[in-house]
Amino acid sequence: MSQALARLPGLGPRSARRAVLYLMKKRENALRPLLSALQTVAEKLSTCSICGNVDTSDPCSICTDPRRDEKSLCVVEEVSDLWALDRSRLFPGRYHVLGGRLSALDGVRPEDLTIDQLVRRVSAGGIDEVVLAMNATLEGQTTAHYVAERLEGFPIRLSQLAHGLPVGGELDYLDEGTLAQALRARRPIA
Amino acid sequence: MSQALARLPGLGPRSARRAVLYLMKKRENALRPLLSALQTVAEKLSTCSICGNVDTSDPCSICTDPRRDEKSLCVVEEVSDLWALDRSRLFPGRYHVLGGRLSALDGVRPEDLTIDQLVRRVSAGGIDEVVLAMNATLEGQTTAHYVAERLEGFPIRLSQLAHGLPVGGELDYLDEGTLAQALRARRPIA
Question: Do you know which InterPro entries this protein is assigned to (chains A, B) (predicted)?
Fold first, then answer.
């Protein structure tokens, strides 16, 4: 069990052994609830066949929510990004999870991601806005660029998350790349 | 001396005492060079009477550099922000240092900053672009808002640094405020 736990991100072999001892000691209060939670996950969670979200139903609760704008699509790399954006209901539309990012280093090619599915969703019609919400990393931006090219020619508004100073960001502590982007993309004040 | 050192930002009383002992031990190799460096600073450094930069000459080397675009002005809170922006020659124009930010909490009012001087510089003519480069903090943005109001009506292009994802920023690790701004200010892709 300790080896299985050590495979979790953020847990090393040592913390995994400590976790095992803790779970053994608190068999009733910790081990059993964890076990049943994991069983629920194993049985009930599935990947949404429309957007790639992970939820207890397929299609997921976002794809089936009638209050959400079905004409707007936000494209993210991973399910964790979808959750990050959705935590505060920032985006009123629906999502598309690519399942990763293009990476020559890791050998991730376009066909390893759900880009074809995205193009099919858009070409099926009914979508008039696509927001690319890839991470501001090199690989994220490469992916955004590629996806933008694939979506060229469709009658949609295509946009990308703004890059610049993060909230609370102080110039003296920010890297030059961020300052350069913030300056380059400066917004006119009415 | 230890008390004088402890007043420096980032040095507590204990590190100050250790620094004193170190300087006493290395009298020739550390104390004397530090002393002469501080003397140079005390004698030669001054505040630029045009922009508020700190330099060995007044007007400073930026204000007198003929290769810099004298029609473009970048407004920053502190000299450290000017240096941060200028480190990589991001901005081809000149600067204006406000000397702080408006703050009800700290009792900083518009007349405590060099806002009047800025308005005078702009109304004197010859400037056709002003970039507000305040920090993305509450007080920085309040200051930017106020400065923008004071510069209303002048025939200049007024803009503000872009806000959004910092370089390398991953959605899952960013705060909701930054995600909200990045989404709100999303850029259309041609």
Answer: DNA_Rcmb_RecR (IPR000093), Rcmb_RecR (IPR023627), Rcmb_RecR_Znf (IPR015967), TOPRIM_dom (IPR006171), TOPRIM_RecR (IPR034137)
Residue B12: which domain range? 2-44
* A9 located within any domain: no
Q: Which of A91, A158, A187 sits opposite B162 (nearest CB)?
A: A187
Q: Report the b/e string of B95-118 with b at 16+ CB within 10 A.
A: bbbbbebbeeeeebeeeebbbebb
Is the pLDDT at A190 greater than 70? The verdict is: no
Total tally of structural domains belonging to chain B: 2
State the CATH number of the domain containing residue A169: 3.40.1360.10
**pLDDT tens-digit readout, A72-95:** 999 999 999 999 998 878 899 999
Comparing alpha-carbon positions, the chain B residue that sits nearest to A182 is: B162
Residue A41 lies in a domain: no
Within 8 A by CB and 6+ apart from A58, the residues are: A46, A47, A48, A49
Identify the sign of the CA torsion A138, A80, B174, A160. Answer: positive
Task: Give the mutation candidate from A172, A173, A174 for the B interface (greatest B CB count, under 10 A).
Answer: A172
> For testing the chain B interface, which of A74, A146, A163 should be mutated: the one with the most B CBs within 10 Å?
A163
As a whole number of angstroms, the longest Cα–Cα distance in chain B is 65
With beta carbons less than 8 A apart as the criterion, state whether A181 and B133 touch.
no
With pLDDT > 70 as the criterion, what percentage of chain A qualifies? 99
**Residues B30, B75 within the same domain:** no
B164 neighbourhood in chain A, CB within 8 Å = 161-166, 185
- The per-residue pLDDT for B158 is 95
- B155: DSSP letter: S
Partners of residue B91 in chain A, C-beta under 8 Å: 183
Q: Note whether B85 and B25 are same-domain residues.
A: no
